[in-house]
Specification:
Elements lengths: L2 H8 L1 H5 L3 E6 L2 E7 L13 H16 L4 E12 L8 E10 L6 E7 L5 E15 L7
Antiparallel strand pairs: 1-2, 2-4, 3-6, 4-5, 5-6
């Protein structure tokens, strides 16, 4: 089983909300989501929790890309531009610090026009438990 399959099969919340991993390699991951009606809030734009979920899935992929179980302990998101119904979103996660216990990563969410919608940062707690995968993809 690949890391992508592991996260896709075990993160039911992200999958149920249309989030999908399309790329994982050491220190980098990409997740995508199309904004559908269930993502729209009372203000007529994509609900912040949907954007957070997309970013969190990409963060999980990048933090687990070294083969040790890593769980998020802190995340911050800044919303810069609204996402709208039909927007095709891409979350790009980049590892900033591959610390043996407290890795740090950044995620940027873009729409189909490559406009920056959100900036997300996260810190993980890396456990000693090894995870065995058949490659990252």
């Amino acid at each position: 089983m690949s890391l992508k399959e592991f996260l896709s099969e075990n993160d039911h919340f992200a999958a149920d909300n249309g989030c999908k991993l399309i790329e994982i390699r050491e220190g980098f991951a990409v997740a995508v989501m199309t904004v559908v009606q269930k993502h729209i809030n009372g203000g007529g734009v994509c609900q912040g929790g949907a954007l957070f979920t997309l970013a969190d899935l990409a963060l999980a992929a990048v933090m687990n890309s070294h083969g040790n179980l890593t769980l998020g302990v802190e995340s911050t998101i800044t919303f810069m531009k609204s996402a709208n119904l039909g927007d095709k979103l891409t979350a790009e996660a980049t590892e900033i610090k591959n610390h043996h216990k407290l890795p740090y990563a950044e995620v940027k969410i873009y729409n189909q026009n490559h406009e920056l919608l959100c900036a997300f940062t996260g810190i993980g707690y890396r456990k000693e438990a090894k995870m065995s995968f058949d490659g990252l993809m």
